[in-house]
Amino acid sequence: MFKNVFGSGFLVRTAHVILTWVITLILFLHDTELRQQEETGQLVQPVLFVLLVLGSVLLYFAVSLMDPGFILSEDRDLQFTLGVTEEQQDMIPPTTKSLRQRRCGHCLLQQQPMRSKHCQTCQHCVRRYDHHCPWIENCVGERNHRWTGFSAAPSWQQWLRSDGVLLAVAVLLALLSLVVLLLLGSHLYLVSLNTTTWEFMSRHRISYLKHCGADENPFDRGTFHNLWGFYCVWGTVVWEQVYFREGSDQV
Predict the structure, then answer these.
(1) What is the dihedral of CA 196, 198, 201, 204, to 10 degrees?
(2) Residue of 133, 139, 212, 232 marked active site
(3) Are the beta carbons of 126 and 71 closer than 8 angstroms?
(4) Nearest in space to 86 (alpha carbons), one of 77, 94, 97
(5) DSSP characters over 38-59
(6) Residue 248: partners with Cβ closer than 8 Å, 6 or more residues away
(7) Would you say the pTM of this structure is higher than 0.85?
(8) Is 133 a catalytic residue?
(9) Distance (Å, rounded) from C-alpha 174 to C-alpha 187?
(10) Which residues of 187-213 are buried (b: 16+ CB within 10 A; e: fewer)?
(11) Interval 92-103 mean pLDDT
């Protein structure tokens, strides 16, 4: 299932891992919040951060080293080479279309399975070949699109027993993603108006806003200018000047 860790792409994998841990080390050596929490004995966030980095490195190696669907040889039966079992062969409807048998001139396979292609970097034909990814130094193919997923079962009770945890995780991720998307949308809306959450929620109690109309925002300089100022301009703005429309020079 997995390739040799010291094979093709060893330098790429090593460089990625070294870069990951060097950045992590810098975050703990410089005056960052992680270092401050470590020095004061608040270890929950630093430990979780290190575990997250470690998990990401392990997942990177798993994706990088796993078999993407290499067709190693055609010494096995023809059905394996074609990727079709006897039962699956019976399910294929008859057709009048004639398919030209594809032969790989590199692997010397007499018949390439449909949708497979020879990878010049990996030196193998790959089932359902997508592309060779230089970041993981491995092909993306039939066997590494996903690791696991929902499986069929004869009854709902058996299905829930086998896939219940995965279903719960999927629902939780969907809810969390929805919350994140709602927060992202609401804050992008506020940024485009050049207003803050506090000003948006409590404008009727803020002295410099309560006399303004419901759709009036004295700090609004136009959507593009608002977004540009928020994301691209660094400095302190004299908001009194913006409020009275005397300019928006920075100090």
Answers:
(1) -110
(2) 133
(3) yes
(4) 77
(5) HHTT--HHHHHHHHHHHHHHHH
(6) 221, 237, 238, 241, 242
(7) no
(8) yes
(9) 20
(10) eeebbeebbeeebeeebeeeeebeeee
(11) 64
